[in-house]
Design brief:
27% of the residues are buried. The chain is 14% helix and 16% strand. Strand 4, helix 4 and strand 5 form a beta-alpha-beta unit. The chain is an alpha+beta fold. The chain has five helices and seven strands, in the order E-H-H-E-E-H-E-H-E-H-E-E.
Length: 266
């Protein structure tokens, strides 16, 4: 295990690190099986790796709208806009610029290097492969949806995960089992795999451990995986119970075809 590191899949470069599926008919980089409950597929679709920009419709001019008011209309007055003439003095939540103004307990000094800086990551939707756009949907709020473990610089294992709400197929499968707790809803691991050379060496298990620690840090109290035992092992995306049991997961639903594995996060 020496010399390994874990990276989040957040751009086209890290998407390219995903190790190939054991069965060449499938491709993690073009899979939307879990994101689309009705039409999702695990199949390899090379065309989906080509970034395609979404078509943009030109914004209609006001003159094209028969219901728009005619002539120039002044913008609504915004009392919090300094350009509107009131400035920060009249905003009780802004940092005071005049030292004579009474101290505002909600205001952070403008030049305070220790004040928290708010930064919201915008998801990548255009100019990227479809799979990356799917993985990016909630990163600004939730964080990354996938991780890769590298040994040296060679991809060894891959795990996809996220909130239950991000994966409609997982929601549909979970609804089949009323014995699973309703609240709090768990995070889910939808895919775990190893490169052919790295199989049965513990890399995927190490990566799942890192994912569980990450999910616990994001506030989740449990994580689940929904297995499919109806096909060959190389065709599944979540493996067999024998993989999950040694790393702290329990058999939450003992079904001969579609068991559910669950781990409580502390």
């Amino acid at each position: 295990m020496d010399g390994h590191r874990i990276v989040d899949v957040t751009d086209t470069q890290t998407l390219g690190l995903l190790p190939p599926c054991a069965d060449p008919r499938f491709d993690h980089r073009t899979c939307d099986y879990w994101e689309d409950a009705e039409r999702g597929s695990k199949a390899a679709r090379p065309g989906w790796l080509t970034p395609i920009a979404a078509p943009r419709r030109p914004r209609p001019a006001p003159s094209d709208n028969p219901f728009a008011p005619q002539g120039e209309v002044a913008a609504p007055f915004n009392p919090f806009d300094p350009a509107a003439g009131m400035g920060a003095v009249d905003d009780p939540f802004s940092a005071p610029s005049d030292p004579l103004i009474a101290e505002n307990p909600f205001a952070a000094p403008v030049d305070n290097p220790f004040a928290p800086q708010q930064s919201i990551e915008r998801p990548l939707r255009e100019g990227v492969p479809r799979k990356l756009a799917l993985l990016e949907r909630g990163r600004g709020i939730f964080g990354s949806y996938a991780k890769v473990l590298l040994v040296g610089e060679q991809p060894a294992a891959y795990v996809q995960f996220g909130p239950l709400s991000a994966y409609p197929r997982a929601i549909r499968l979970r609804d089949l089992y009323p014995q699973l707790p309703d609240a709090p809803l768990p995070a889910v691991i939808t895919c775990v795999s190893s490169a052919a050379w790295a199989r049965r060496q513990g890399y995927a298990a190490r990566l799942v451990e890192a994912v569980c620690a990450d999910l616990a840090g994001r506030g989740f109290s449990a994580v689940e995986a929904y297995l499919d035992l109806t096909g060959p092992e190389d065709e599944t995306s979540t493996g067999r119970p024998a993989f999950w049991l040694p790393i702290g997961f329990a058999l939450a639903v003992d079904d001969e075809r579609y068991p559910v594995m669950r781990r409580e996060l502390v």
